[in-house]
Design goal:
The protein is an all-alpha fold. The chain contains two helices and no strands.
């Protein structure tokens, strides 16, 4: 899920990015249905 870790300034930035990326994908999965959940899980 962490696509941009190389650009993160520190570990906290990496954790923030990963968390928000995961939340974004979860939101998309709930919005667009089970076909998105396949790529998340």
């Amino acid at each position: 899920m962490c696509f941009d870790v190389a650009n993160a300034k520190n570990v906290n930035d990496i954790k923030w990015f990963c968390k928000n990326t995961w939340l974004l994908f979860r939101f998309l999965s709930m919005t667009y249905g089970e076909e998105m959940a396949f790529f998340i899980e």
